[in-house]
Amino acid sequence: AAGPAILPSLLQCDFGDLRSEVEQLTAAGARVLHLDVMDGHFVPNLTYGMPIVEGLRRHTNMPLDVHLMISDPMAYAKPMVDAGADLLTFHVEAVQDSVDVAGQIRDLGVGVGVAINPDTDFAKLDDCLDAVDMVLVMSVNAGFGGQSFNPVALDRLKSLKQRKPDLLLEIDGGIKVDTIGAAREAGCDLFVVGSAIFGQHDYETAINELTLAMNG
Ligand code: DX5
Ligand code: ZN
Known about the structure:
Layout: E1 5-10, H1 18-27, E2 33-38, H2 50-59, E3 64-69, H3 73-83, E4 87-91, H4 98-106, E5 111-116, E6 134-138, H5 152-163, E7 168-172, H6 180-185, E8 190-193, H7 195-198, H8 203-214
The site of D-xylitol-5-phosphate has 21 residues, from strand 2, strand 8 and helix 7.
Function: Catalyzes the reversible epimerization of D-ribulose 5-phosphate to D-xylulose 5-phosphate.
Family: Belongs to the ribulose-phosphate 3-epimerase family.
Active site: 36, 172
């Protein structure tokens, strides 16, 4: 990754006009898209799967960062890669053997991330830190947009940055102009943003304000 980036999360967008959403985000300066895949089982919410990823792939060259909030990530990893995902993140809570899952995803030829919810024992990540490209530190419980930021994420980012300086760090949940600066200071590289972009009329202004706040 070339410097820190703000990743719009396609969760609160207009699904009736995805092509226009992608065009607006491109014009607003977005460089990577974050796709929230939920199965109604790992989380009590249901979003979308491969057809949407594949449809987005046809409309943009931006890397697609796919956040799998699903109980059986390996059942869909290959189909997601075939649909055009560039990076696949699974939840550490969803799998028995995170090292094995990370290895299997990496063997598919894409980047691999591991995500952890705020209430999950942080030590659960220890095993797989050497097996992933990225850690997604959740600052809300996975499942819904528009929740408020849990600062436990900041301590986790700092700890990860110290232990593994080369690991890519991503944060997701409640990232707004008043939280993004602290996340950047804690060592975060990739900032997933839902409501603070899609709740605004002008995506470019929203991204510019977030970028300013990020650079403090
Ligand atoms: C939550 C999703 C997020 C969500 C963030 O489960 O992973 O990507 O869209 O939304 P905000 O920015 O509104 O917290
Ligand atoms: Zn997400």
